[in-house]
Automatic annotation (TrEMBL):
It is found in: Cell membrane. This is Monovalent cation/H+ antiporter subunit C. It is a multi-pass membrane protein. Residues 106-153 are annotated as: Disordered. InterPro entries: CPA3_antiporter_subunitC, NUOK/Mnh_C1-like. The chain crosses the membrane at residues 6-23, 30-52, 72-96.
Length: 153
């Protein structure tokens, strides 16, 4: 099997550009990054699908090809296109809603996440107690039963 280098370079370029755009704080750039990664995956599936050939229909030929084309790759690409368009519509709706609420397209830091990360950095490490090897694990604990429930006797 021969592998062509140009599609692999294009796939790498689309993927790296898509990841770069996904790491931005701008919602439109995030959406474009998702679309670029989706297109890179579609091109990867097409490249892995192999050489073109006859249509996968009995009795049809195309330019004298001796092998049949793989219909699985084509079906997977069509499915991936539908999924990426649905995801793009969802992200576009989120971006529109966010812009209508805040009139800013940049995603800011969440104050609660900032507070938790500052709090986690300032706390000392908690010591997790080791389980007692002499404890009977078959006996019911306080938390195993509902409060006020005696059970059937």
């Amino acid at each position: 099997m021969t592998t062509f280098l140009v599609p692999l370079i294009i796939i790498g370029g689309l993927t790296s550009t898509g990841v770069y755009l996904l790491l931005e704080r701008n919602l439109t750039r995030m959406l474009l990054g998702l679309l670029l990664i989706g297109n890179a995956v579609n091109l990867l599936i097409l490249t892995v699908g192999g050489r073109s050939g006859n249509p996968p229909i009995r009795g049809r030929t195309s330019n004298g090809a001796t092998t049949d084309a793989d219909p699985l790759a084509q079906g997977m690409i069509l499915t991936a296109i539908v999924i990426s368009m649905g995801l793009a519509a969802f992200v576009l709706a989120l971006a529109y809603r966010s812009y209508r609420l805040t009139t800013v397209e940049e995603v800011g830091n969440d104050p609660e996440d900032t507070r938790v990360s500052q709090q986690a950095g300032s706390q000392e490490e908690e010591v997790i107690p080791l389980p007692d090897p002499n404890r009977d694990t078959d006996a019911p604990d306080e938390l195993d039963a509902l409060p006020g429930f005696e059970g059937s006797k």
